[in-house]
Amino acid sequence: MNKTALYQAHIDLGAKMVPFAGFEMPVSYAGIKQEHAAVRERVGMFDVSHMGEFFVSGPKAAALIDYVTSNDVTKLTPGKAQYSCFPNETGGIVDDLIVYMIAQNEYMLVVNGACMDKDWEWVSKHNAQFGAELVNRTNEYSLMAVQGPNASAVLQKLTEVDLSTIPFYSFTIGAFGGVSNVIISNTGYTGSGGFEIYVLNENAIDIWNKILEAGKDQGIEPCGLGCRDTLRLEMGYCLYGNDITNETSPLEAGLGWITKLTKESDFVNKQYFIDQKAKGVERKLVAIEILEKGIPRNGYDLEDEAGNKIGFVTSGTQSPSLDKAIALGYVMVGHSAVDTEVYVNIRNKAIKGRVVRLPFYK
Amino acid sequence: MNIPGDLKYTNDHEWLRIEGDVATIGITDFAQSELGDIVYVEIETEGETLEAGATFGTVEAVKTVSDLFMPVSGEVIEFNQALEGTPESVNSDPYGDGWMIKVRISDASELDNLLDAAAYEASLG
Questions:
Q1: Which fold has domain B8-123?
Q2: Which end of chain B is more exposed for a tag (fewer CB within 10 A), N or C?
């Protein structure tokens, strides 16, 4: 089992550790509800160093990325980031990712930790026809997500970079906490705003402690993967492996907005998605609010009123902010309209829910 | 980890307080801390007579769901209705307000299969 550079800090903070993506990761410290509330109301910090970082450079860099990702890389300018996915050749998704444009001919791809090896293989394979310079620096970088309404104020104490000048899905590389060349990115997976901070492993503990110290007055809390999941689910952000997989199309998952079928360049399986869009998808990922007692979980059946199976749950939890159960799941298109009643089969009981608009938490 | 000396335990991380032929049953401090924030305790077996090992209910935490098992055979004579309003007391007071059911024990010899506090603590490693 791998350990992130921050492993000892988590142990010292009394974190409950679980295996995730090949790493021992903190799932919670004080408890999911408390950490969740800290992010929604104040500020929380996550170690998400299990994420993978691939650097792509050279004159063929943009062409490679444009071919393996569904979004339009030509829309990026230096300092901008873009949510995207790697479509596979069979109508599904290899992984979702963020593409960072560092400079002309220089990009960073940030991928899911659990997918890192297969992503690397995938991008390397396709690079054979492009010949970009490709370096996997996953083992060199640590990533801390500092999220919540007070995140900016806390982080501003540690840098001369004016954080208010970094718009959403933009980043700056600068000095932070006495360390140079830190990637300060206005991105996140919580819906409460904040930044993601990329540093080399050797600086990780130092920066982690400096942020905790700087955030004391603002009530910062270390946060684990448990509340990362409840926070992202309240926003309806997809989790790879649950809501999107190698068998789900981005069009089914509501990711048409990152699937640029009209972009000039070809991308992996583009024609398939053009055809799928023309024909219309047969199932859709929907947001479901549960109206009765019970919590939907990954894999539970979704049914119509008569008890016919119409789909399945991909993510579900009790929403700490809303104090009700929420879920994402695929249903046949005829059941996907907002306000449609659907039933979750929870231990052989039909628990009533309703299709709602995302986000759950507004 | 809080493991009161006057209770009996199971390898499924449940505790029993034996008074005559009635056992009060709940989950241990270790179990509640592993589950995390508890959201629902669902027990719909009141009045039923169940074998040891049978499922008497489920506990839903934010992150996960877990079945609750009968540590001994017997009739479920009461469940803790207060948990419907305050399931979090299983987290805050697992051996007190967080108790789950009372069972009229049908076979006292099964009590020999239970662990004492020292043995339970040792089982946690």
A1: OB fold (Dihydrolipoamide Acetyltransferase, E2P) (2.40.50)
A2: C
Cα(A90)–Cα(B97) distance, rounded to whole angstroms? 54
- Write out residues 11-40 of A within 8 Å (CB-CB) of B: 16, 27-28, 31-33
Is B33 within 8 Å of A317 when comparing Cβ atoms? no
The answer to whether residues B95 and B32 touch, using CB atoms and an 8 Å cutoff, is no
| Interface confidence (ipTM) of the complex | 0.83
Q: In angstroms, how far is the first alpha carbon of chain B from the final one?
A: 12
0.90 cut: is pTM over it?
yes
Place of tokens 């009372």: B102
- Final residue of a domain: which of A138, A158, A189? A138
Residues B15 and B115 sit within 8 Å (Cβ to Cβ): no
Dist. CA A191–CA A100, nearest whole Å: 20
CATH of the domain at A308: 2.40.30.110
Give the DSSP H or E segment for A99: strand A93-103
| Cα nearest neighbour of B35 on chain A | A31
Q: Is residue A333 part of a domain?
A: yes
Q: Inter-chain contact A294–B58, Cβ cutoff 8 Å? A: no
Distances in Å between the alpha carbon of A307 and those of A302, A342, B2? 9, 10, 45
Minimum-distance CB partner of A297 among B37, B42, B65 = B65
CATH code for the domain of A68: 3.30.70.1400
Length of chain B (residues):
125
Q: Tens of pLDDT along A231-272?
A: 999 999 999 999 999 999 999 999 999 999 999 999 999 999
Supply the range of the domain harboring residue A76. Answer: 52-138
Domain boundary among A138, A173, A196: A138
**What's the number of domains chain A is made of?**
2
Neighbours of A325 (CB within 10 A): 27
Rg (CA), chain A: 20
